[in-house]
Amino acid sequence: MSETIQPENQPDIVLRRLTTGFMTTFVVRAAAELRLLDAFGAAPRPVGAVAEDLAVPRVTLVRLLRALTALGLFTETTVDCFAPTPAGELLRSDHPQSLHAFVEMFTDPVMTNAWQDLASSVRTGKTSFDERFGAPFFDHLKTEPAISALFNASMSQASRVVAEALPQAYDFSRFSTVLDIGGGDGTVLAGILRTNPELRGVIFDTEEGSAQAPERLAEAGVTERASVVTGDFFTGIPGGADLYVIKSILHDWDDDRCVRILRQCRAVCPPTGTLLIIEPVLPERVTETVPAGLYLSDLNMLVNVGGRERTCAEFAELCEQAGFVLTTTSPLSADVGFWYLEAKAA
């Protein structure tokens, strides 16, 4: 007896849902652009009152809210009265776990336009972003200060779960100084230092990438134990640390440039020092338990920055070419989606 296919799993419905996924993206973007959740707060509100606050027509706001309700970001408590769900509340800009900047960045044309040329990138292996915008992604950000700041904020929001999970999963008490390569605004380093009061830290990033770091370190209360150094990790990395952390950097680059970064790290890492890579890790093959987002991220690296997600074996090969050997690989936790990969000098 054949298994009955549920309506939502019928092949045509599955394909239609995937085909119209872009509509979902821009429904969520509209909520972020309008700062709709800021207008709601956490309590149910009638549409008319919210429409007046936002200076938008009531009739179109109802249509948007009903779409957001169908997507699980709101509930309609009574007719034309809505309240955000826990997922919807994360679109509030002042929520402690806000993903507002992340949503704005990853739905902005600077991030979505190159996806229209995914087939071209698959055919050629070239990064579509460069063709669309006339410059590589990170070079383009240098010319757009507002987008650069939004990108930094989105990376900070995306890094919060790692900043919370990493100090619980990895023993930092063995080290005296940690240098965070491409450390951005210091979200991860601040998380490490807060839970390791004897540790000192350094953020190493470009001037644009580390622009918000002093503020973040001050908020975390670790300014006296942390410093910010600007530079280019392709041409040199500061010495003086016994632990070098590199999170969400290698997946931005092709293999050759990853090896260049790691060789710069190897040049300053002491013989007894440690390199700690924090990245998503692809399994050796796709299974039903692997989140689709991991492979979508891999394609985002292809079209926007020219990098890729990698397996443990591929990270091991990069390390070997740079004079390191992987000694430990482990997921941070079941729900974080990142691994830590510890490497020592070969």
Automatic annotation (TrEMBL):
**Which top-level group of life is the source organism from?**
Bacteria
Domain named O-methyltransferase dimerisation is located at 18-91
Alphabetical list of InterPro entries matching this protein: COMT-like, COMT_C, COMT_dimerisation
Query: Residue ranges of the O-methyltransferase C-terminal domain?
Result: 115-324
Q: Which Pfam families match?
A: Dimerisation, Methyltransf_2
Protein name (record): Helix-turn-helix domain-containing protein
The answer, when asked if Transferase is one of the entry's keywords, is yes
Q: Does the keyword S-adenosyl-L-methionine apply?
A: yes
Q: Which controlled-vocabulary keywords does the entry list?
A: Methyltransferase, S-adenosyl-L-methionine, Transferase
- CDD domains in UniProt: AdoMet_MTases
